Amino acid sequence: MLPLTHYLFLSFALFLIGLTGVLTRRNLIIKLFSVEIILNATSINFVAFARLYGDAMGQVFAIITVVLLALEVLVALAIIAAVCSRWKCAPANDDKDLSSQLDY
Amino acid sequence: MHGEITFYLLAGIAILSAAMVVTRRKASYGCLYFGLSLLASSGIFLQLYAPLVFIAQLVAMACVVLGIIVVAVEVSTLNIALAGEPRWRPRAAAIAVTLLLMLHIVSAALQGRLLQPGGNLTVLLPRGPIASPPRAGEMMKFFMSNELLPLALILFILLIGGVGFRGIFQKRIRT
Fold first, then answer.
1. Prediction pTM value
2. Residue B27 confidence (pLDDT) above 80
3. Phi, psi of B111 (to 5 degrees)
4. What CATH number is associated with residue A82?
5. How far is A48 from chain B, CA to nearest CA, in Å?
């Protein structure tokens, strides 16, 4: 196994990238992806420490995180679609792309 | 040495893909890079002797990315970069995922009758620092067993929910 610092640096880099996306981007879907990247970094930490200590609890937490992420994405997509439907920000025949339509 | 090269390769792909997700302007391209980042992360999970997390992340996130494409791009009729694609493609992909999940559920249910109670549990969980990585045959057998049945059921319910959401949203758009 590689030293734990390798995995910690990787998760820290992913966390920073996700945090940058959350703080700087205005697109709702990109913000959602950034949150997912942050939680993916936490999963890497969980699994790395589980491997270090030989305990399966970290893997259990990582699996719970993955399943919760799947649920969270669908709920967030439903909210985004409802907001777009309510505020009429979804022109059906427009040449604009999704990122410009979902900017708030 | 081999493990280090694999780790650096996967970590580089994960970090670069995450950076591309944040820097791309179009959400559809960001979605694709996001899937690539998750794939690289699942490879790191496999390298950390966590095949269950690897499979869960692979299946769940593949369905999530597919759901994002189907729901946010095709269903909501937003005209984005993928709008020029024929509409049968995401539908065919959704049908393929549904059939795969149903195949997995049926296979797991059939195998569940043959297993002793608790006989196949924790086979691939870590056994300490000297554990050997699982072989591909073991992982395939594990994937088709009843260990992942709750996950497959959750994904199946999510897929049905996505289809229902599609119907409701299209009805609201028409009205």
1. 0.60
2. no
3. -70, -25
4. 1.10.287.3510
5. 7
